[in-house]
Amino acid sequence: MHDPEHHHDEHEHSHGADHGHHHGPFQKDHDTGPAGAYEVLEEAIRSLLIEKGVLTAQEIAAQVDLMDSRTPALGAKVVARAWVDPGFKRRLLKDTRAALSELGIDIGTLAEFRTVENTPKVHNVIVCTLCSCYPKMLLGIPPAWYKSLAYRSRTVIDPRGVLTEFGVELPKDVEVCVHDSTADLRYLVLPMRPKGTRGWSEAELASLITRDSMIGTAVVAPPSEPASRERAAS
Amino acid sequence: MVKRWERRAVKPATAARFTRGDRVRVAARPVLGHCRTPWYLRGKTGVVAAVHGPFRDPELLAYHKPGLPARVLYKVRFKQGDLWGRYLGPASDQLEADIYEHWLEPAK
Amino acid sequence: MSEPERKNTPRKGAGGRAVHDIGGLTFGPIDRSEHDLALWEKRTDAMLILLRDNKRSILSVDAHRRVIESYGEQEYDRIAYYEKWIRAIRNLLVEQQVLTRDEIEARVAEVRAKHEKTGRKAPKERVPW
Description:
By secondary structure, chain A is of the alpha/beta class.
């Protein structure tokens, strides 16, 4: 549950590597720790806006809870459906908004979504060089590295080098396509379905699909279970 | 203040200038204020991969203006070998970006 | 060929690359460590979403970006993601005449004093305008 009294330690830098600071792991509940200038500013702004009736504490808390509730599981569900249902996959690639609404997902009016498909010939990777646009509705909040100067600057000019850092090596005959989210479109990568998943249910498939595979900085690895293990179709 | 929900339901002032498959060059001109055309694409030539349709102009929205006339937005595809002096990968690698019509010119 | 690091590229005033427009530069290795957001960061995110919704329409994501893009290069590279955000929200609230600079500064002073009293060390640094 949301706890308004829950204080955190010093404010974090979301992209630690860019300015050479070393940061320890996030520490919770240190209400004797220093309150950074920006944390103080946030409290000042929030309290003024609440006093003036611009926002309410309840609205802010509800929005924080909504943000916390969004995880890559929703994106994984979409991908798993596309893997088992070729018609859905076609519709997802053609009109992502409409296909998502089939699953009861309303992406709202602030942005459009597009889906790009990884194939044996093409590997897609998403970046926003200008800020950090990201399909939050499907994947939750972006990881710090996605928002980092390093990722934003290098992915367009050296995507294969970036992918190598993420442990993804692609042969030269696979085309790498970088998508820079420069406008109001958000991109979801539809990763390739790995071998060894024949007959798996959507839920089982979804459990394999990682956030990074939907950004394009990972592929979905084949399951580790032996191929002889039987799985009932859903 | 313009309501965000109106953002997509706009008509452009004129018909879309480009269509899928057109070769286009990204303008190389100075920018005043907010701009969503990245520096690394200015002056580069690519191909229209998709026509996204009209959107309010972010360069005006950034200053609390309604963002009209709406601009047609395009997905433009570039060869990485054309973007970077010595691209560290196969020349067949691609890059796509979403560019507003007023930043595009016809290219041969 | 990679482009030179930022410090060798022309500034925006010279018609060159803007501070946020970093595609093709080569900032260092990617730090892949992950951690939760602090509560104040989540609230900052929440306030931006609420301030731009239909009920309020006080600012847009475009205006928010525009303000962040106006930061100097040192600040842009150095200050953290949500630090950029809350500073821009503050500036836009003043720009849109929802709050005044004076009342913000007064409230900041009160919050700092409150933290001092409860034993949380108050920061010396101020958030620049």
